[in-house]
Amino acid sequence: MIGAAFGLGFIIGPAIGGLLGSFGPRVPFLVAAGLSLLNWLYGFFILPESLTPANRRAFDWKRANPVGSLLNLKRYPIVLGLVASLVLIYIAAHAVQSNWAYYTIEKFKWEPAMIGASLAAVGLLIAIVQGGLIRIIIPAWGQKNSLYVGLALYSLGFFLFAIATEGWMMFAFLIPYCLGGIAGPAIQGIISTQVPPNEQGELQGALTSLMSATSIVGPLLMTQLFGAFTGETTTYYFPGAPMVMGGLLTLLSLVLAMRALANFTSPKI
């Protein structure tokens, strides 16, 4: 459901931002700040506390930081293996997130309107997969198999993007790429079952910290790779290089996940 909400936001947000931008370049940012404030007010005054008193523990400064949270994961071998897999997935994602506009402009001469339409298509597909298909696929296949199939489809999507020769193909190849989104809820579900209730918040905090760290490495890696294979001095012109890198990292992520879950049995959902 969170993924579906993200997908809907991916459709609605750019449209609202574009409309508000006609009133001035600062207006979308001011409205976004206001929405963030409303979100905080909702969370503080209305959203109920999910952690019961029985599952709370004393505050510890040693664990109240990203490094401490990550070190604590060493106690859970399955979680540690899947966290390594997640890191590669997050970095691979920037092959698309950081290069989509550059890639489609360079290879297909897309205009901003077409880029916006493609991003809306991404949002729609994400909403369908996360909001609907997840509820069918994961109970039917189990978390482990859903993770494996999702990562395989995700990797396939990257490789197809890399070899696309026509703009319409990018829209077609969004289907396996976005279907790969079944891997996210599956891996998160497995990880969450491996730690006790009083460490769930710490776990999610550690994962968010990792995502932030990969948001430093991923864009640098993928945009520099794109520049290296499209610049005037390149010896081999290949705009799809970041997409290939994303596919390879995802395949490696699949290998790590399979090793971590070799003895794991998916619970019935």
Architecture overview:
The chain is an all-alpha fold. The chain has helices at residues 2-21, 27-45, 66-72, 77-97, 100-108, 112-141, 143-163, 167-179, 183-192, 200-230, 241-260. Helix 6 (112-141) runs parallel beside helix 8 and helix 7 (143-163) packs antiparallel against helix 9 (183-192). It is globular and about 60 Å long.
Compact overview of the structure:
By secondary structure, the chain is mainly α.
Distance between the termini: 16 Å
Parts with pLDDT < 50 across at least 5 consecutive residues:
none
User: How much is the average pLDDT?
Assistant: 88
Gyration radius, to the nearest Å? Answer: 20 Å
The largest pleated sheet is described as: none
Helix count from the secondary structure assignment: 11
- How much helicity do the residues have? over 70%
SSE series: HHHHHHHHHHH
Approximate strand percentage: under 5%
Oligomer: single chain
Broad shape: globular
Number of strands: 0
Given the helix and strand composition, which structural class is it? Answer: mainly alpha
Which terms would index this structure?
269 residues, mainly alpha, 11 helices, 0% strand, globular
Secondary structure: elements and pairs:
Layout lengths: L1 H20 L5 H19 L20 H7 L4 H21 L2 H9 L3 H30 L1 H21 L3 H13 L3 H10 L7 H31 L10 H20 L9
